[in-house]
Amino acid sequence: MLAQMKHKRNGVTLVELMVVLVILGVLAALATPSMADMWNKRRVAAVANEIATDLAFARSEAVAKGVNILIQYKKNSSMSCYTVHHKATMGDCNCLSATAVCDETTSGIEVKTVQIPSNLDVTFVSTSASGDPVPLVEYTFPHFTPNPANFSVEVTGRNAVSMQVQVNAMGRIKTCSPNGTMPGVAAC
After folding, report:
1. Are 94 and 101 a contacting pair, CB within 8 Å?
2. Which residues, in sequence order, are bridge partners of residue 147?
3. pLDDT mean by block of 10 residues, the chain; 188 residues
4. Alpha carbon distances (Å) from 184 to 23, 156, 177
5. Which end of the chain has fewer CB atoms at under 10 Å, N or C?
6. Distance from first CA to last CA of the chain, Å, rounded?
7. Can you tell me the distance from the alpha carbon of 166 to that of 54, in angstroms, rounded to the nearest whole number?
8. Apex CA 175: angle with CA 172 and CA 177, to 5°?
9. What pTM was estimated for this model as a whole?
10. 56 burial class (0-12, 13-18, 19+ CB within 10 angstroms)?
């Protein structure tokens, strides 16, 4: 009679637990590349949107304060950066500097500086309509149009993911994806 009694066990065996862990490991390995790609696209979009916002802000500062506003773009191996500042003289604001970016006595009054470290895998470069580098953009009083006219800033991340911020001769700003790698963003 004792041989016929069955014992009910609660819980799981070590083999069952190992099978579940292996399945979870496989699912995590499949999800990791897509998560990294998503974060890369979000970083590129965030930088492009901030550049577009700051270009509009620079133009509005020129209108509101009645002064020339400059945006200087720089890049080296450790970062990409730009500075929005009031033009005092033809001095240089160095956004690559870890200390004071603008010297108010020689180069202007800093309004905003953005520094993007290289370890985020996002860089940007400003170019004219002909493809030449544009290290300096100026909104001049009283016209408030960009000089040079028709320039763009291309923001690039890992795996050739990119967005472009385009500014036309009238100062209107448009963002687009030059290679169609950004879902939900119009192609250039």
Report:
1. yes
2. 138
3. 61 84 80 79 95 94 88 90 76 73 69 90 92 90 86 92 94 91 88
4. 33, 17, 9
5. N
6. 82
7. 13
8. 150
9. 0.79
10. middle
